[in-house]
Amino acid sequence: MTDQTSSAPEPTASAPAPVPAPPVAPPMAPAVPAPPVGLQPATAYAPAMTLGPVGKQRSTGVAFLLSIVTLGIYSLYWYYATSAEMKRHSGQGLGGGVALLIAFFFGIVSPFISSSEVGGLYSRRGQVPPVSGASGLWVLLLGWCLVGWIVWFVKTNSALNAYWASATPR
């Protein structure tokens, strides 16, 4: 009998190299839902907002006296003028014509809308708004004795004047 030992053949240069196993992918992170249409996620370097012309500062006392002397006609002008200026400045809001119509036909909601728009000016700059739509509650709760109208007007007009003063280029 012949003694045969089996030995593995030695690889030759023409033999292909063994193929390594494909790498295992790490587990996937849970999917983050996309923001709703029309909303964009906040970014650290958001583009600067282009603002229009700065509105006119109106003396609170003079505006209040004109409203009394003109039997409320100046207050309609005030709603028109301030809403138009805020719309031109920020590009958002009702605008003068719509604000005038609302003030004329649905006057009780105008303090809520005006205060909300003034507060929105501050919010868009990243500041805490000094007035909001809730500021109109002064009129609703104490408007019957004019105290609510006075408190609301002083707060809202002062906040708007302060905003215009801070937005005026120096």
Any descriptors?
mainly alpha; 170 residues
Helices and strands in order:
Elements: H1 60-69, H2 73-90, H3 96-105, H4 110-124, H5 137-142, H6 147-167
Helix pairs in contact: 1-2, 2-3, 2-4, 4-6
Brief rundown of the structure:
The protein is mainly α.
Ends: how far apart?
A: 111 Å
Helical/strand content category: mainly alpha
- Specify the biggest β-sheet: none
What level of helicity do the residues show? Answer: 40-55%
Which stretches are poorly predicted, pLDDT < 50 over at least 5 residues? none
> What overall form do the CA principal axes indicate?
elongated
Mean model confidence by pLDDT: 82
User: Number of helical runs?
Assistant: 6
Can you write the helix and strand succession as a string?
Answer: HHHHHH
Rounded to an integer in angstroms, the radius of gyration calculated over CA atoms is 34 Å
How many strand segments?
0
Strand fraction equals under 5%
Q: How would you sum up this structure, described in words?
A:
This protein is an all-alpha fold and 170 residues long. The chain has a domain at 60-167. It is built from 6 helices and no strands. The protein has helices spanning 60-69, 73-90, 96-105, 110-124, 137-142, 147-167. It is elongated, with a radius of gyration of 34 Å. The termini are far apart. The mean pLDDT is 82.
